[in-house]
Amino acid sequence: MPREAELSVNEKSFVLNALREKVRLDGRGFDDFRKLRLTFGEEFGVADVSLGKTRVIARISAEVTKPFVDRPFDGVFTISTELSPMASPAFEVGRQTEQEVILSRILEKAIRRANALDTESLCIVAGQQCWNVRADVHVLDYDGGLTDATCIAVMAALRHFRRPDVSVEGEEVTIHTLAERVPVPLSLLHHPVCVTFSFFLGGDVVLIDSTLQEEQLREGELVITLNQHGEVCQIAKLGGAPVDALLLLKCTNVALVKTKELSRIIMRRLDEDHKAKNVDGLMAELSAENAR
């Protein structure tokens, strides 16, 4: 099975000795994220996130389908992840690695099961037709911090996406094109963000947003997902070194600060993209044409 090239004994010793001296090789503080770059595509619902050298693209699509029998008033929301060998030699096409399985489960709990997207708003005709919203995640480059970058990409894409408007008259359902009706944003109840903590040296050193080199040496990791209101959506402790209760509480407080910082960056980039595309002007023009 393909895997990442392991660090040499000298590299391991150098990194760990630097952490003992309270130094990271890239010069960041222990609680600092790498530079976040977020751009949006020409189409609604495409987000390109770079966290250091890690790069993830998320694309949102929607189609009309039949709702599940046991949930006739809800639409469908799914998240699909693809880890390409282009991103890392440890990933294979058509074969899920352990990391891909863990990533999928964390995203499911952090976003879908936490009801970030209001699935009831996706219902068109109860029991007959609803929207099936799908988030496709493609990892283009991997240098650590994959969970955090992927969560940011999916949530930014969901906030950027617009679905076609729908009108229902009796049993007739009409899906309007962009030229006919103003597209509708998705109804998001809250905006979760994942923050991953890595533990070294028996838990004495805790890092945020570890690089791939640091991830290969960590003794344990903790993923905390919070929304902009400070509510904890999920906590995932994926084995490794045990975490003291007081340390867990400290990590949660740090994650809250980082969540608010990242949320502000996402909101600012959405506003900049909104103005660059002159969405308000386009919507006003379409509304005027509809009125005529």
| Helix-and-strand structural type | alpha+beta
Q: H/E order of the elements?
A: HEEEEHEEHEEEEEEHEEHH
Low-confidence stretches: none
The largest sheet is: 6 strands, mixed
The separation of the N and C termini measures: 63 Å
Estimate the global geometry from the Cα principal axes: elongated
Rg over C-alpha atoms, rounded to the nearest angstrom: 21 Å
The average pLDDT value, as a whole number, equals 89
Number of strands: 14
Q: Beta-strand percentage?
A: 25-35%
Secondary structure layout:
Layout lengths: L8 H12 L15 E5 L5 E6 L2 E12 L10 E8 L14 H15 L10 E3 L3 E13 L4 H15 L1 E2 L2 E4 L2 E4 L8 E2 L7 E8 L4 E4 L3 H4 L4 E7 L5 E9 L4 H32 L2 H13 L1
Parallel strand pairs: 4-6
Antiparallel strand pairs: 1-2, 2-3, 3-6, 5-6, 7-10, 8-9, 11-12, 11-13, 13-14
Structure write-up:
- The protein is α+β, with helices and mostly antiparallel strands and 292 residues long.
- 31% of the residues lie in helices and 30% in strands.
- The chain is built from 6 helices and 14 strands.
- Strands 1, 2, 3, 4, 5 and 6 form a 6-stranded mixed beta sheet that branches. Strands 12-11-13-14 form a 4-stranded antiparallel beta sheet. A two-stranded antiparallel ribbon has the order 7-10.
- Strand 8 (166-169) and strand 9 (172-175) form a beta hairpin.
- Helix 2 (98-112) crosses helix 3 (146-160).
- The longest helix has 32 residues, at 245-276.
- The mean pLDDT is 89.
